[in-house]
Model the fold of this input.
Amino acid sequence: MPYRPVEFRDDDLPTALERSAAWLRRTQEWLGEPVDVIAIHLDYDDSDDSPYYDVKLLCNEEDLAGAPIALRAAKDPQ
Done:
């Protein structure tokens, strides 16, 4: 099953985590079911000139394409 990374980068970790959590909530509402996340990857650069935190969610590509919504619509046309 193909997976796609969804990335959130910010200059502080709490903000990057909050942004990824907000995205997960909105996406789950849109899908009508939990997002299939296989991994969460955290990377950081603590250099003085441009520190950042990078939170990467590895998600099921079919979920992100809206397959669950399309399947439900096909089963329950209204």
Remarks:
- Residues 4 and 59 are 5 Å apart (CA to CA).
- Residues 13-31 form the longest helix (19 residues).
- Strands lie at 3-10, 37-45, 52-60.
